[in-house]
Structure formats: C-alpha cells, structure tokens
User: Fold this.
Amino acid sequence: MDKIKKAREYFNYVRDIPYSIPSLYKEPDYCCVGKHKMLSDLLLSLGIKTRFIACEFLWSSVTSSVG
Assistant:
C-alpha cells in the first residue's frame, strides 16, 4: 500500500473518533490535542513529519446540532 493512501486511512480513522475530553488521568485523550498527537505519531510511522499549529477561535461562534 502506498504511503499517501495509508496516510489518508490514518487521517480518516483519527477524524472519525468521537471528540471527548478525558475526565480521568487514564482515559484516552480524544480532544483536539490528543487526536493531533495520535495522528502525528501514525504519520511519523510512515516517515511523514508533522508540526503543531494552534488556532484561535471563539466558542460562541461554534454552532451545535444539539437542542
């Protein structure tokens, strides 16, 4: 399997993990930082380097499908 195809599979896998913030130390971290770290590690295993980029946003601008 070529590297780009495998990278896409890794991206889709991590993207589709439901977002969650761990409430206990031993729970998996599936928030933005935890998912970034997971994807970064997976891509690094393919020899693809990544870098961390932080963005600013307002929580008040986030729309919700709940309610």
The first helix runs from residue 3 to 15.
